[in-house]
Amino acid sequence: MTKIMITELEGHQENKTQKDIVNVHVNNGGVMYVKVMTDEQLETLRNQIAVYASICEQLVEMHKSLTAQQDLTGISLSLYFSPYTCFHGHKITARQRWTPTAVQLQILERIFDQGTGTPSKQKIKEIASELSLHGQISETNVYNWFQNRRARSKRKQLGSSSNNAESEQESRVAE
Amino acid sequence: MTKIMITELEGHQENKTQKDIVNVHVNNGGVMYVKVMTDEQLETLRNQIAVYASICEQLVEMHKSLTAQQDLTGISLSLYFSPYTCFHGHKITARQRWTPTAVQLQILERIFDQGTGTPSKQKIKEIASELSLHGQISETNVYNWFQNRRARSKRKQLGSSSNNAESEQESRVAE
DNA sequence: ACGTTATGAATGAATG
DNA sequence: CATTCATTCATAACGT
């Protein structure tokens, strides 16, 4: 039976409608930060994941049938996923600025985490080449990404190390 | 200051591997059940969703190449969904966002109007420090505020003068 | 309750 | 690199 004392931070707002992910002190032993969420929020998360699961399944099915029979001219597109759930704005916009796809991001993060800090020119070329398999990308994009990523992770470091006394006041949700 | 007593349900597990979303009693007023999760767990959820996103994209790619090869008439699945969608930067949480109090806003506006445009790092610190007397605030908040304030006041200028650019929140038609 | 607007925050790119 | 700018997403606030 673990008891946790939750003290709501920043009481500067009277009518907090449903801001309810708060930081939490665990007072048994150390100090541990956890999130608190309502059933509703958790439900939302579950739904989001469920939607993905559903989409994935449908796509897999689709792919299977496609590869199985080649002559299916009328594949019923019953596999519409209703985009309103998770993808609230399925705009068909042509963005002018590059946005990494999920796959690309994953790869980039992985490389970044390997700590091989400096991405040499050669390296950049390679990465860009690999990433181009998963979507439009240029070497400049890769370069910028690493620049920004490093800078921002650094900034985060400094910011958090400022004054971490145990005062319950601090400890805003990490950015 | 709301105090919440968390008692872990079914304490039949010592080494809580990662089943540790527990129910919670709120003892102020009514009884409210919420879940508690560590950052780590939240991260896990995020990753799960990210993985789904990744898989989905890959599947879409697969499908695209398949349909491309085989000239399947009428099967143009526009499976495109914006990568921005739900987890812009893998953020899932209902992020709580800072909202300046009236007093804070007043002060900020005043400083902004003084035209001392660039708020240096040091300045930011001071301002944040002062504003913290009037409510929860972080240096990042201050930084962002000035950033946004400047950008938007500038945009307004431009918009009113010559051709009216689209408002900030438009959605542009695809290519 | 629900759609709109205002605005805090995230981030790709540019600039020094 | 360090900062700044520009654009866009996401949501608090607000009107209906």
UniProtKB/TrEMBL annotation, chains A, B:
InterPro entries: HD, Homeodomain-like_sf, WOX13-like. Keywords: DNA-binding, Homeobox, Nucleus. Residues 93-157 bind DNA. One of its GO terms (cellular component) is nucleus. Its main location: nucleus. One of its GO terms (molecular function) is DNA-binding transcription factor activity. It is found in: Nucleus. The keyword Nucleus applies. Residues 91-156 form the Homeobox domain. CDD domains: homeodomain. It holds the Pfam family Homeodomain. PROSITE patterns: HOMEOBOX_2 (PS50071). The keyword Cytoplasm does not apply. Residues 153-175 are annotated as: Disordered. This is WUSCHEL-related homeobox 13. It comes from Hibiscus syriacus.
